[in-house]
Amino acid sequence: MAEYIRKATLFLFTQECIKEYFNKFNFFHVGCFKTTLSKILGLGIIGGSFLVKVPQIVKILKNKSGEGINILSVLLDLFAITAMSSYSFCSRFPFSAWGDGVFLGLQTLIIAILVMHYNGDTAKAIAFLSAYIAVISTANSGLTPINVLWACQAMNIPIVLISKFMQAYTNYSNGSTGQLSAVTCLLLFFGSLARIFTSIQETGDTTMILMYVCSTLANAVIVTQLFYYWNIERVKSKEKIKKKS
């Protein structure tokens, strides 16, 4: 029983912090405070990641449409998440530093398949799913050299920017955010913002930190568009009501 408790505490505290907090009763240790906060944030992000893109999935299913969702942007996003998760897994980073990637990847995959399906490309969606399973299995099997995974992770920085700005351009071209879920976009923004801190504390990996900085900035653009176009649509609705009256 004691062994299980010890393992459970390691999800929140490092060995050093366990000594500082429970042996020395040093509750004001700055380093341990940062590390523990990072782990709590990381676990919170992982918990939240179960539902981050669910509103988007529900919205697509409800409307039976992927209108306004740039499929290439979704696929690039999926690549970025998969590369980050595989690299982190093979680098043996703490699960709290990257675990949300597992659930975000699964949800992004579902979104990609749904968009393809509702765009009339069901066969392509099935083929893509099969190919993705093969790729992710190979990437995490230990057969893929770590330097290859690092290269894929490094590619995430431009890919994240390109994927988000492609979606931003689609929004701009349409004059609307279409089927994009505001809840999902906001959660992605705050999640990537928090990940900057957790990546600094738990991995120290420059590429991961830069990726989350870029992701936060790009997500901020999408969130800004959501509010901007939401305000425009609200004004248009009011004008229509006035004309009818």
TrEMBL record:
One of its GO terms (biological process) is oligosaccharide biosynthetic process. Keywords: Membrane, Repeat, Transmembrane, Transmembrane helix, Transport. The chain crosses the membrane at residues 69-89, 95-118, 125-142, 178-197, 209-230. The keyword Nucleotide-binding does not apply. It is found in: Membrane. The keyword Cytoplasm does not apply. It comes from the Eukaryota. One of its GO terms (cellular component) is membrane. It is a multi-pass membrane protein. Belongs to the MPDU1 (TC 2.A.43.3) family. This is Mannose-P-dolichol utilization defect 1 protein homolog.
